[in-house]
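User: Hello, can you help with two protein structures?

Assistant: Certainly.
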Amino acid sequence: MDGTRDVQRWVRGWRLRLLDAGMLVYPAVTLAAVLQHSPGAGAVLGCAVVTAFAAGYLLAAAAAARRATRPFWLLVGGCAVLFAVALPFAHADAFFLAAVVLSLAAPRLPRRAAAALVAASAVAAVVLPWAVRPWQSGPGWTQAVALVFTVLMVSAFAEAIRANTALVEARAEVARLASEAERARIARDLHDLLGHSLTAITVKSTLARRLVTAEATRAGEEMSAVETLARQALTDVRAAVSGYREVTLAVELARGRELLRACGVAADLPTATDVVAPDRQELFGWVVREGLTNVARHARATRCTVTLSAASVEVADDGGGGPAPHGSGLDGLRERVEAAGGCFEAGPVSPRGWRLRVTL
């Protein structure tokens, strides 16, 4: 944000106005030339023309700052006319006014048109003072060089302003995209975390309702488990939102074993996770969490197996198979796996059942 303010500081406000005011040096030089070349009433009229030019320039600069296109070009046109009117009074030095007019117009014209206009004006600045004999002066090399380099300098500054403005807009876009990515991360993590916990709560609540009259003691145990799961879900949500959640393979296997037991599914799960490298255990934990949650929700299976190796994890069941349910957490899991450079497979297997496999 500090960098953005620094950029805006130079493309807006009093600093830009100060740079605009610096161009008034050229009308001042032209005013001195009027007093030198035009005596009497001619000097008064010439000074009035140059003063009107200076006022028109300041108004045009203000219109450019407001992005008022039509008033800007009308004022630039008026300044061009005043430059032509000033020629008989200031002679060759009137081309300093042409430098001001072109500095306003050139950055806003197509490059070829601007280059042609600057070249034609420079040639006129050289030739006209020499061709008009009553002026009694040679070619206006000084005025031509000042014109060309002034326009180049102002055009370069205008290009820098445009680049800085684009930089500010790009920073704003990056910030917006980062915010959207963070919202997507939180949404994905909440889905993955809560899907597992709420599924277990639902299953255990249903089981407790069935047991409440027949087996009151066991029903109480299941409701205690529901409370524990609810508290864990709340902890997971807080951790996901704060960005400091931890998912471990060992914990997910333990939770999954309890979830499958509550669903009446025979669980064939590993009891050790040493075969998996520490840097892969979190990702494999997410795979186990999502796979076992889907088994509990959708599979209608009687048996579920989790297979671990150093480079892969597989969750398979003997349920009805079928396509992945719409809106499942598999999309978020696929994003995690692809970000880690892994291979993601999910779908029905023959003769029946469903398999989720991730390989790194």
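That covers the first. Now for the second protein you mentioned:
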Amino acid sequence: MTRMTSSARPLLNRRLAEFGTTIFAEMSALALSTGAINLGQGFPDTDGPEEVREAAVRALRDGLGNQYPPGPGVPELRTAIAAHQQRRYGLSYDPDREVLVTAGATEAIAASLLALLEPGDEVIAFEPYYDSYAACIAMAGGRRVPVTLRPDDGRFRLDLDELRDAVTDRTRLLLINTPHNPTGTVLTRAELAAIAELAVERDLLVVTDEVYEHLVFDDAEHLSIAAFPGMAERTLVVSSAAKTFSVTGWKIGWICGAAPLIDAVLAAKQFLTFVGGGPFQPAVAHALTHELEWVARLRTRLSEQRLRLSAALTETGFRVHPSAGSYFVCADIRPTGEDDGIRFCRDLPARLGVAAVPVSVFTDDPAAWRHLVRFTFCKRPETLDEGVRRLRKASARRPPG
């Protein structure tokens, strides 16, 4: 028998009351129940490099990580992370003091915000933002302040004047994400330089989510803001094996930053998961050291699939915004005669046999974003081909203009 509380007070605390079931769970369940191709949730339907998976199996068999690993992460992985940051960005981190392994990038962000924020501190995040950002800010007692990425010649651009105006005496931290989910924007060198200048001028901390760092396309270039003048001592760089190596279920992420920042985050992280993913940590160390050629091939394939999906969406009647990075493209549904992304996404699986995600759920101003829908292209070629076939079939049914 279920026992009910007699208190009139809601069970869920007020900080989390605005957050219900995630849109990803809702759309994935809808895709499953209708047999739709799931182009909504951003997880691959293929596994990562075989040798990386074998490294995890060897770790299990050899007893590496079957018990609690060290709190900051196994030394082999921390060393590999530090070497990766040095090779790729020229950033020098002490693997013993300035690298922390986490249960995915989500825990890295949550622990950072829990450690660094006091109740009432303001956090500026670029809108639309990954949904966990808002929840993590709320759990830390902070106040989120959105700065909107606005469409400009197809690309979503940061308004630097709006960003500067958003900073107040209560602003503690900038939470940035590049390559950006859900828009596919990659912040330019000029944009990052301006953000860095503002952070130094106003003495702000920065948490930068770079989980799609290796997945940039065309002539886009991913740069880490931590490498800009004055930023190393105030920036926490977050990344993960999940998207780079197609192992989203392993939940191995990390944070790099100056030792005082990492010490603060570890103080919070130790009371969340404590540790996790022991046998996967040596495997990710192998991946960072030996499998970046596999990642380059993945990037090429994803770029081709991005173009194929974008073309199919355009033929179906959507207005597609170009994507320079990540797993995603955003499409404007208004040319199809629709204007409500949430309703559209709830109807789409049964109508076309394809699932997508409305962008408005990632914003503080849903009305301004209600016409945009996010699709992912990170699926197997045959899965994506079937999704494209279903979209194009809808285009063929549409009466001529």
